[in-house]
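User: I've been trying to design a sequence by hand for this structure and keep getting stuck. Would you show me what you'd pick, starting by listing the structure so we're on the same page?

Assistant: Good idea, let's start from the same input. This is the structure you sent:
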């Protein structure tokens, strides 16, 4: 049975209410000021792997799109992360956050020390967007529906609880508050337009659930490696290492 447009949108939004990673214990710890400096650094390092993969995911998507209108609409997502002559981009802003928490940005950019589960989750998302239907690929991006709240909560929590936090170090999140709404408005409308059967609506909903699982799995791995039981796999970043020179000297 095909749901109405309003009913289907409500179904998608309920997925976020139930499953989005703002409810994960690690984010609750981070936003409340409960993370140690090294736990914050571990989050910055591992999240970089996801940030760096976003434009590759979007390029893989665009390579499959025949419709120039859809490609034009999607192109700005790559520019938002990779940057342009006028916009430094989200990846550079994330590396600025790495600077602020005392990490060696070259180490962060190398993606060495990433947790295996982070790598697997990020790679799974890129493969999903590359290999599944365009409807499923777009639907998976709709976690952006729920992102403004987590960005706002994160800005508020980090500013209140961590000395490194200021407008410059948190510029990634502030910019996403402006960039994400246009992306999600287009993506949501596209999914609602194209999920015109019950089968397609189910596929789109499952794609969005898959994406929430990708985000949740990364935080599960982070929490297990650096919070409880703090058991890290071989090759994972070790707390206190790969710091900026001045940070290492101060320590």
């Amino acid at each position: 049975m095909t749901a109405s447009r309003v009913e289907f949108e409500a179904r998608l939004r309920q997925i976020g209410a139930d499953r989005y990673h703002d409810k994960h214990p690690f984010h609750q710890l981070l936003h409340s000021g409960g993370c140690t400096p090294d736990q914050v650094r571990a989050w910055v390092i591992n999240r970089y792997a996801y940030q760096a993969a976003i434009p590759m995911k979007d390029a893989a998507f665009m390579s499959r799109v025949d419709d120039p209108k859809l490609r034009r609409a999607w192109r700005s997502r790559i520019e938002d992360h990779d940057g342009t002559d006028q916009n430094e981009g989200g990846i550079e802003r994330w590396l600025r956050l790495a600077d602020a928490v005392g990490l060696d940005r070259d180490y962060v950019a190398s993606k060495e020390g990433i947790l295996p589960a982070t790598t697997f989750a990020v790679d799974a998302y890129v493969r999903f967007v590359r290999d599944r239907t365009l409807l499923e690929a777009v639907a998976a991006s709709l976690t952006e529906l729920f992102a403004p709240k987590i960005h706002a909560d994160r800005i508020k929590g980090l500013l209140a609880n961590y000395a490194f936090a200021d407008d410059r170090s948190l510029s990634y999140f502030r910019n996403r508050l402006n960039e994400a709404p246009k992306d999600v408005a287009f993506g949501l409308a596209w999914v609602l337009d194209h999920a015109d059967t019950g089968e397609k609506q189910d596929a789109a909903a499952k794609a969005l659930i898959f994406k929430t699982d990708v985000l949740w799995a990364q935080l599960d791995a982070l929490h297990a490696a650096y919070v409880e039981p703090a058991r890290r796999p071989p090759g994972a970043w070790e707390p206190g290492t790969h710091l900026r020179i001045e940070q290492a000297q101060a320590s």
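That's my pick for every position. To get oriented when you compare it with your attempt: The mean pLDDT is 95. Residues 198-226 form the longest helix (29 residues).
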